[in-house]
Design goal:
The chain has 2 domains: about 160 residues, NAD(P)-binding Rossmann-like Domain (Rossmann fold); about 120 residues, N-(1-d-carboxylethyl)-l-norvaline Dehydrogenase, domain 2. The protein contains 13 helices and 9 strands. The strands form 2 sheets. Strands 3-2-1-4-5-6 form a 6-stranded parallel beta sheet, sandwiched between helices. It has a 3-stranded mixed beta sheet with strand order 7-8-9. The radius of gyration is 20 Å and the shape is globular. The model has no long low-confidence stretch (mean pLDDT about 95).
Length: about 300
């Protein structure tokens, strides 16, 4: 079975590398071809276009930034559609619009191929360590075909429903992510103002009901003023835009998520969109006139 991977970015690089390490026959493509060099050195083949990638592979994975990017990779000139046919499968690990997912799936199905939407969560660490959570929408038989390969980088793979369901589940995930990010930011700001040892405070609370992945993994980074991204503010904002668009369509109030969206927007205005999403705390620090970990 030949596996293709389109999109060698902050998430795709680790996922594709895990496929290669697992011994699979992998071909990769990236808009900036130079970013495929290390994977090629590890044994992956490199395609010149998405169409060439799809033609050469039985299953093609995608992980790119936004809905227009997936549309371009799939439907654009030299897009995947040019190389798809009966028996082929596309697995989209990007986080994009659920309605666009349905349209893309229909175009791929019209060519005789299949589509699965399978957005991921776990940051660049999860992609590199093979511990991602994957939320899958699509046909059960299609998922069964893709499962042995997704297991190279996913520790939790859950089928949540038909096409588009994976994208909706990812939006739910992102509501929880930013809610946790806000809670961690507020808690550490309070601890700083109260004169607590921040590392000891995290150790004191992370094992109880207050514990979370965000606290354990991003809390120490906040204390160290380490803003390297597992997931950037700019990408988080893209996901929150999708969340709020869906909430508007469904007439669901999401006041907490809306607040975080505006706080991230303020940070983007300051040129901080490339920071990790845990830099949300900087918006609170600006309000408080206090920086965590510097006193």
């Amino acid at each position: 079975m030949k596996i293709g991977y389109a999109g060698i970015g902050i998430m795709g690089r680790g996922m594709a590398a895990n496929l290669v390490r697992a011994g699979h026959d992998v071909t990769v493509w990236n808009r900036t071809a130079a970013r495929t060099a290390d994977l090629a050195a590890s044994g992956a083949s490199v395609a010149a276009s998405p169409a060439e990638l799809a033609a050469a592979c039985d299953i093609t994975m995608i992980c790119v930034s936004d809905t227009p990017d997936v549309e371009a990779v799939t439907l654009g000139p030299d897009g995947l559609l040019g190389g798809l046919g009966p028996g082929k499968l596309v697995v989209d690990h990007s986080t994009i619009s659920a309605s666009a997912t349905t349209r893309l799936a229909e175009a791929v199905q019209a060519a005789g191929a299949e589509w699965v939407d399978a957005p991921v969560s776990g940051g660049s660490e999860g992609a590199e360590n093979g511990t991602l959570s994957i939320m899958v929408g699509g046909d059960t038989a299609a998922l069964d075909r893709a499962m042995p390969f997704m297991e190279a980088y996913g520790a939790s793979i859950t089928h949540v429903g038909p096409i588009g369901s994976g994208q909706m589940a990812k939006l739910v995930n992102q509501v929880l992510v930013v809610g946790n990010a806000l809670a961690v930011s507020e808690a550490l700001l309070l601890a700083e103002a109260g004169g607590l040892d921040l590392d000891a405070t995290i150790n004191a609370v992370k094992g109880g009901a207050a514990g979370s992945w965000m606290l354990s993994n991003r809390g120490p980074q906040i204390i160290e003023r380490d803003w390297r991204p597992g997931f950037t503010i700019d990408l988080q904002q893209k996901d929150l835009r999708l969340v709020l668009e869906s909430a508007d369509e469904l007439a669901v109030p999401l006041p907490g998520t809306s607040l975080v969206f505006q706080m991230y927007r303020a940070l983007q205005r300051r040129g901080l969109g490339g920071d990790g999403n845990h830099a949300l705390v900087k918006a609170l620090e600006e309000m408080a006139g206090l920086e965590i970990g510097t006193n």
